[in-house]
From TrEMBL:
Pathway: Polyol metabolism; glycerol fermentation; glycerone phosphate from glycerol (oxidative route): step 1/2
Statement: the UniProt record of this protein carries the keyword NAD: yes
KW Transferase (keyword) present: no
NCBIfam families: PRK09423.1
Keywords: Metal-binding, NAD, Oxidoreductase
Pfam families: Fe-ADH
EC number in record: 1.1.1.6
UniProt name for this protein: Glycerol dehydrogenase
Catalytic reactions of this protein: glycerol + NAD(+) = dihydroxyacetone + NADH + H(+)
Organism: Nocardiopsis coralli
Origin superkingdom: Bacteria
Length: 385
């Protein structure tokens, strides 16, 4: 459930201080970050550092601030956040920049909060809506969901360079679409149920409307945007999808609220056989599960499944590695998804464990029919390895 679920009956909207998106945006990072500190620390893995260091060197030199990298360990665990916050303290850094994807960015938020310094999100992929939010998803060392960690402020600055997004593997953007499509599915459920959002209040009209706007852009621009990034191109459709998956979905999920789709994602992380899927790919299984749980029109569910299959997202348990899973494995997924702290309890009704398990099982048939209509053939887990 969202933080402060016993908060007064107020509506709350949260957002980052500034959002900058476009081709070449990383080249502006140095001048932009000096408003928040004079000794930044950049958290990134080795691949992202190699890709971005030439651009950042010039940008930070222009701003007359030192460029200091710290290598990200790869998994956003509590221990990794503690390690990085120690680096901040020991180096006297006054701002931290999470550079790359959602895992590095979420870790930078946690480390910045530990150390008491502002944090900046600099995204080179559009695979999740993590960059804008005032929370981190914390995982165990093995990659299972552990908890949400909430902060009293959002990133001071978010920078997204769409040229890097276009040059990244298309699977990253596809995953971002899966994550963002869930935003409206969940936000509308939260509003119907009069539940709390992720910042401890009721959703504002703005938060819910931004979730719906993200949905509309995703349906109109996802397929041409994915076609463009397969050729490393930045087009208006790519810019629209990056905004939808990063800014609009980020504001929409945080201020609109989460429900069953992300809870099912969290449940899927509890079993090793799903770890080949990205965050957004698991979320798509969760979106289908929520739609089935809520009794959405069959035609709407079929349309959604076919569209997301064309986007390149998994729509079956088989693709998730659960096609032959026995009841014990599925029960582990359901148990984690139904944890008392989970956002599935934001629905307008309280599903039983059997309700969730049956909806999860029903995803297989829906997804197979969708793949057949899309001409994609039989699903296999190897599609996502």
């Amino acid at each position: 459930m969202a933080e402060n679920s016993n908060s007064p009956h107020v509506s709350v909207f949260a957002s980052p201080g500034r959002y900058v998106q476009g081709r070449g945006a990383l080249g502006r990072l140095g001048p932009l970050v000096v408003g928040f500190g004079s000794k930044p620390l950049v958290l990134a893995d080795g691949v992202v550092r190699d890709l971005t260091e030439p651009v950042l060197s010039g940008s930070f030199e222009e701003a007359a601030v030192p460029l200091v990298f710290e290598r990200f360990g790869g998994v956003p665990t509590r221990a990794e956040a503690d390690r990085v916050s120690s680096v901040i303290d020991e180096g006297g850094h006054d701002v931290i920049i999470g550079l790359g994807g959602g895992a590095a960015i979420d870790t930078a938020k946690a480390a910045g909060d530990n150390a008491g310094v502002p944090w900046v999100s600099a995204a080179t992929v559009a695979s999740t809506d993590a960059p804008t939010s005032a929370l981190s998803v914390v995982y165990t060392e093995s990659g299972a969901f552990e908890s949400y960690r909430f902060y009293d402020r959002n990133p001071a600055l978010v920078v997204v360079d769409t040229q890097y997004v276009a040059e990244a593997p298309a699977r990253f953007l596809s995953g971002g679409v899966g994550d963002a499509l869930a935003t409206w599915i969940e936000a509308r459920a939260v509003r119907r149920a009069h539940s709390h959002n992720m910042v401890g209040g009721f959703p504002t009209h703005a938060g819910t409307a931004l979730a719906e706007l993200s949905w509309d852009l995703l349906w109109s621009s996802s397929l041409p945007a994915l076609e463009a990034v397969r050729s490393d191109l930045v087009t208006p459709d790519v810019e629209a999808i990056v905004e939808a998956t990063t800014l609009l979905s980020g504001l929409g999920f945080e201020s609109g609220g989460l429900a069953a789709a992300h809870a099912v994602h969290d449940g899927l992380t509890a079993v090793d056989r799903t770890h080949h899927l990205t965050h957004g790919e698991k979320v798509n299984i969760g979106s289908l599960t929520q739609m089935l749980l809520e009794g959405e029109e069959a035609s709407d569910i079929d349309e959604f499944a076919e569209f997301t299959a064309r986007v390149g997202l998994p729509t079956t348990l088989t693709e998730a590695g659960l096609g032959e899973a026995d009841e014990a494995v599925l029960e582990e997924v359901v148990r984690a998804a139904m944890d008392p702290s989970e956002t599935i309890h934001n629905l307008a009704f309280e599903p039983t464990h059997q309700d969730v398990r049956d909806a999860l099982r029903a995803v297989e048939g829906v997804g197979r029919r969708a793949r057949s209509r899309a001409g994609l053939g039989e699903p296999t887990p190897e599609d996502y390895t």
